[in-house]
């Protein structure tokens, strides 16, 4: 009997989205399920950087840097308005490394891999013109990387997969796996948001469930390589409080780790930490010690700014599914390579990073070939299918919405933001919004960008949600209470 689909993808982050798109482009019938919401985990809580892995050169991982730089450049070409270049200033402070000579050698190689020159040097006398208030001892190195809206990038990839026929389900959990007479995994039992279960027959499963890989493996009775979940926390503050025109990176005085601050959507991001997060049952949130650590980093490089906890608008923390080396090393010294593991029709994908999601998807499908013998090789050079420009629509919306930009980029701008009311309406109608945080944290970033977690916007949202989702006034009140409690708990500033 013909299965319901060729490939079942578990996980709706950027890795799972990449697998679904790559498989759909090769003609497979694909179903993707996500236990929470699309981009719920690290794919909406990253540093928002599409970077080439400059720091990987220090550990000798030239292949990883080459791959990252190539994918960064491809995303910049294909998604203008969503993935954009940003200039970095790397401040040099004694005795923290790397020094000027070492950094310039690394940047020369970085430029070579990218096929373009972006490196430069600024003396101490130049710094007040480039970054007022930045403390340096030996000037600063200049280079470029890229930034994005990580959640919207994930949703754009999913949008393209759906257009090619992929079936997508969020808030749907895996409860059991089925095997055939030969012991190969051939299906799954799924519980949807309505509480009902359905059985889905498939030829192969790819698990892109991030740090929750062990949960899927346990259902399969398998023992995959061990992961080391690592928490990275970030601060967000109004840009006027520290008005940077470009990104700044430096070494933290306490442990020499790279930290950064850069403008993003009219605000300033400061990050990041790198700590073990072994309890996956606890939603990640910044801890008081991490807050102190990041504020100390700011005080080190911007001593006259006086930024404190009271200046912060919100925080976030994500968990990276890093492959454990089983060596006694600090979290920052673990490799950022991705891992692909396969057994009995289950392929597991873990590790890696946002920038290289397409390469990871290709590796996962290569490992799935024994169960997908008709799978053709990759033939597409571009990461996403190309679309003709939408006349009269600015690049920002074309990058975010692709062929749907003309439908979504309608209506007035929400005051103080670059989001249009039409984007919210489009998401409510077409992007499987189940809760207010789906809309305000991932379909848009208003919950982070607006003061008070966008609480002042909620009265205007109520009639829109009631109209498009059929919510009653009581349902909206419940959602509002749930949303504000969630934001206070996971995105607030520790006392």
Structure description:
By secondary structure, this protein is an alpha+beta fold. 32% of the residues lie in helices and 23% in strands. A hairpin with a 5-residue loop joins strand 8 and strand 9. Helix 1 (14-25) runs parallel beside helix 5 and helix 1 packs across helix 8 (357-368). The chain starts with a strand and ends with a helix. The mean pLDDT is 95.
List the helices and strands and how they pair.
Layout: E1 5-10, H1 14-25, E2 30-33, E3 49-50, H2 62-78, E4 83-91, H3 100-114, E5 120-122, H4 127-130, E6 140-148, H5 150-163, E7 167-169, E8 173-179, E9 185-191, E10 197-207, H6 213-220, E11 227-238, E12 247-251, E13 258-264, E14 267-271, E15 275-276, H7 288-301, E16 314-323, E17 338-343, E18 346-351, H8 357-368, H9 395-401, H10 405-408, H11 421-430, H12 436-443, H13 446-449, H14 458-469, H15 473-491
Parallel strand pairs: 1-2, 1-10, 2-7, 4-12, 10-18
Antiparallel strand pairs: 3-6, 4-6, 5-6, 8-9, 9-10, 11-14, 11-15, 11-16, 12-13, 13-14, 17-18
